[in-house]
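User: Fold both of these, please.

Assistant: Here is the first one.
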Amino acid sequence: MFIIICSIIMIMDMEYRNIIVPTLERMGEETIRVIFSMEEMEVACLYYERAKVGWTHKPIMPQAWRCVDSKISDVTIYERGIVEPKELVGWGQELIKVYL
């Protein structure tokens, strides 16, 4: 029991970008899937689409991507305090800007 508790505390102290690995997958011209894995197991999957004019009343950039759907495979990443959902959404947007 002590070993398990110590390892969880060590993970919580680490920055989530060092233990979660993102993978980008283009699913079409307008859709991108970002898969987040930890210890070779998928923990979350976010789907992004290009922002459309009808989505908001504010002017948007034509190259903007917005998260439209998500699938969380392992909620323990939130329960253990490793990462917050909004951090994954923001990280996914950063990756798309850099690599696409």
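And the second sequence with its predicted structure:
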Amino acid sequence: MRRADRSPPRSPPREPPRELRFARRTFSRTILPLSSDDAHLRVPLDLVWQAAVLHVCDSIGGSTRSVTVEVAWAADRTFLRSVEPLHKSEFEQLFGFGCGRFVRGRVVHFASDVLT
């Protein structure tokens, strides 16, 4: 007599995180405060965040490095939220961190055509 498998059901495999690369080297971005009374500076509550791998190019010819972020889209804007630190000046400048001063959950947004 065979014993029934009592292991919990397996969840479907997760999709790998989306890969994000910059289509342009220069662009305008806005750093959103963690809280604000100004509606233009608030993170929209209806955003659907997805894990992504952001490839950060070096501005002076060094190596490209990757970091996990969260990404969401609304209208013609792309939103990025910091998840883990990357000790690279281009990443720190993107999110407005001081050198080595990572802030988890900081959100920036920019035009949707900046990333591919």
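The longest strand covers residues 65-74.
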